[in-house]
Amino acid sequence: MNQFSRTELLYGPEVMEYLASRRVAVFGIGGVGGYVVEGLVRSGIGALDLIDNDTVALTNLNRQIIATHKTIGRPKVDVAKERILDINPDCIVRTYNTFFLPETADEFDFSEYDYVVDAIDTVSGKLAIIEKATAEGVPVISSMGAGNKTKASMFEVADIYKTSVCPLAKVMRRECKKRGIKSLKVVYSKEMPLTPGQAEAEDTNPNRRSTPGSTAFVPSVAGLIIAGEIINDFSAFSQ
């Protein structure tokens, strides 16, 4: 028996060995990305690269799994690494306290990754991740808008060109088409975003134009769906 015995009952020992040999890069360790990491490490992924330049803030407590009063003010990648190693001490974790943009994209060798997760907010950064992964032939999955939404049951997995309603997905469809990106797996929701209240809120990301509303259960569901897609894809790849 080991800590992954229950997972092994579903996938078998060969798949578990395969998962232990995989490296996944998660760009963005926030409401969505934090739960992607949680799902992956608890599923036996052997190596994780964490990329985020933000620190844990008070306003993260409502939705981010790494956020507690004890972690406020600490770099998210450092807190996430500690949590990963508490869950699986054998996991190999590399952290990058970097704000990923096209200008910083060359700092990362995408050929090292077996799967890439885009869980960041900026369109230019998302496109750079997708282009770099695509150029290396590495599978990538991208999170569309999870802010200003309250219906976790409305998330779907689809190709970017089959999405609708989501404003971010609309922008990404257009930009992916311009760049000749023929396919992109995304997690998105057809729920119409709500208009958040105008109450002041702390936001540590200076690149975000406005502060979206969010809940404990919408970003977490999106993140766990992404983790599940990766594990199931790896299961198929290993056959």
Describe the structure concisely.
34% of the residues lie in helices and 14% in strands. It is of the alpha/beta class and 239 residues long. Mean pLDDT is 94; it is low at 199-204.
Describe the 3D structure.
By secondary structure, this protein is of the alpha/beta class. It contains 7 helices and 7 strands, in the order ααβαβαββαββαβα. It has a 7-stranded mixed β-sheet, sandwiched between helices. The two termini are 24 Å apart. Mean pLDDT is 94; it is low at 199-204.
Unreliable spans are: 199-204
Specify the biggest β-sheet: 7 strands, mixed
- Percent range for β-strand residues: 5-15%
Q: What is the averaged pLDDT score? A: 94
* SSE arrangement, N to C: HHEHEHEEHEEHEH
Principal-axes geometry comes out as globular
Q: Can you lay out the helices and strands and say which pair or pack?
A:
Elements lengths: L4 H7 L1 H8 L2 E5 L5 H9 L5 E5 L24 H12 L4 E5 L18 E4 L4 H14 L3 E4 L11 E5 L7 H12 L6 E5 L28 H20 L2
Parallel strand pairs: 1-2, 1-4, 2-3, 4-5, 5-7
Antiparallel strand pairs: 6-7
Helix pairs in contact: 1-2, 3-7
Supply database-style keywords:
14% strand, alpha/beta, single chain, 239 residues, 7 strands, globular, 7-stranded mixed β-sheet
